[in-house]
């Protein structure tokens, strides 16, 4: 009886180790520079900042060439409340230097109080000259997002 228990524990632990740990090692070898994790972190922080109306934090993730326009357009975003969001699958570009994903915000306008879905396509990149860093910036489709926000009213 005791040997059966030990054999069962060994079989279960082997199954667990190969089923749960192996994918982590495989992912580590596929992405040794941690591009995926750093992008997921940056994207989550940016999207959470938009969700909670923390525009100062959101701006820090926007590509430097687009920040001024982004700030001016975000004034219109203050009429909207985001209740939740869903992030789509990451579509990687060449050498994992760029990535595109679609975020679906669940939001409502303060004037209508009717929740709707707003989709934003986020284009992320590592700034040129910084290919060895994991600092990601977004080129948000802010005009597209604001137009959709305006339609919530």
Task: Tell me what the structure shows.
- Strands 1, 2, 3, 4 and 5 form a 5-stranded antiparallel sheet that branches.
- The protein is extended.
- It starts with a helix and ends with a helix.
- It contains 5 helices and 5 strands.
- 46% of the residues lie in helices and 25% in strands.
- The chain has 153 residues and is an alpha+beta fold.
- The chain folds into 2 domains: 1-30; 33-150, Nuclear Transport Factor 2, Chain: A, CATH 3.10.450.50.
| Gap between N and C termini | 70 Å
For the largest beta-sheet, the strand count, sense and barrel status come to: 5 strands, antiparallel
Helix fraction, binned, reads: 40-55%
Q: Tell me the number of helical segments per DSSP (H or I, 4 or more residues long).
A: 5
CATH architecture field of the largest domain = Roll
Task: State the domain count.
Answer: 2
Under CATH, the topology of the largest domain can be stated as Nuclear Transport Factor 2, Chain: A
Rg, Å, rounded: 21 Å
What is the quaternary state of this protein?
Answer: single chain
Class derived from helix and strand content = alpha+beta
């Amino acid at each position: 009886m005791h040997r059966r228990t030990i054999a069962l524990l060994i079989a279960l632990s082997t199954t667990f180790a190969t089923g749960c740990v192996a994918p982590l090692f495989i992912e580590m070898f596929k992405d040794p520079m941690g591009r995926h994790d750093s992008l997921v972190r940056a994207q989550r922080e940016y999207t959470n900042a938009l969700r909670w109306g923390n525009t100062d934090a959101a701006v820090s993730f926007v590509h430097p060439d687009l920040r001024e326009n982004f700030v001016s357009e975000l004034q219109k975003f203050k009429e909207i409340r985001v209740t939740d969001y869903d992030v789509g699958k990451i579509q990687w570009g060449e050498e994992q230097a760029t990535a595109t994903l679609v975020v679906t915000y669940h939001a409502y306008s303060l004037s209508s109080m009717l929740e709707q879905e707003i989709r934003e396509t986020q284009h992320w990149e590592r700034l040129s000259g910084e290919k060895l860093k994991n600092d990601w910036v977004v080129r948000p489709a802010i005009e597209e997002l604001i137009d959709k926000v305006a339609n919530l009213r």
